[in-house]
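Continuing the series of single-chain predictions for the mutant panel. This is the parent chain; the variants come on the following pages.
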Amino acid sequence: MPAINTISAAAAAAAATSAGGASVVAIPGMISRLIFTNSGNAILALASNAIHLLWKWQRSDRNPTGKATASVPPQLWQPPSGILMTNEVSDSNTEEAVCCFALSKNDSYVMSASGGKISLFNMMTFKTMATFMPPPPAATFLAFHPQDNNIIAIGMDDSSIQIYNVRVDEVKSKLKGHSKKVTGLAFSHVLNVLVSSGADAQLCVWSSDGWEKQKNRFLQIPAGRTPTALSDTRVQFHQDQIHFLVVHETQLAIFETTKLECVKQWVPRESSAPISHATFSCDSQLVYACFLDATVCVFSASNLRLRCRVNPSAYLPASVSSSSVHPLVIAAHPQEANQFALGLSDGGVHVFEPLESEGKWGIPPPVENGSTSSVPATPSVGASVSDQAQR
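Parent structure:
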């Protein structure tokens, strides 16, 4: 049983106050995007109603470092003004709007969109510093340039990628190569490239010097697997900045960038639920993946072999069915390689880490009283929710 901490996004309704008399949606809805801050002491979520939620861990006797942990619950945080970071929304197709955000390296501001204009927020005051690029097309993915936080790559729902300079409010380049909306972007500062992925299941590699397309390749969809119309493809660079993780509902894959070749792949069984999201651990040694049946799996990144499976009953209350609530996003802690968080379709967020006695995911506990532990190297987690998860 891992240590699990449940954060209720419903608490946002009690804590939320409105600015200028505007109404606040009481139910935050789905957690569409989720990230740990770079400092490692807070979690930022973007809900489907375009409102951001920020939970911070405080220094205390139980948590002297003030870092994120599954043993102490964080507090929903707002500035003294009580305002919310709320994205502008488009008048049309709010239900289908794609949420996306990117956090600056120093955690000082977040760039975000929920189908309307892109907003730039101050993370200390929650004030909107700027809005830009009104749709159409709408932004579907945002990524800061690793060397210059004034440059952002913006994936759009018209399949283009716009390279935008915030400081001068100007689109520097427009990249065309996908046939459907852009669903993922990742920079490699070692190779000076931008990798993009789209709803067309295509991967493209672009030079970040002149923005020319260097290579492209379509994912091979495993036999017997038919992707849904909503299927997204996500990309994330390995710590070595040469390999990258590809996440698709039908597979996990590791690609080598210069040749754009798949070097490792994991495919769920035909009877298994689709993958909803996945991410590298901060040291790129593990891959955390969540599924639409609310299962979570931990893989070794080197060979994509399963190390550990967390069953839904380990973190969902008995009253909640895994067929009605499931994880949509998974985020890895920036310094603690064994800690991750899930954002759920009911607005809940759960923080996971292995028990101290185990230390790592998939490592059996030490032998006690001379008896060998019956926990296998890839254990299935038990059926009860921890005390901490019930708080």
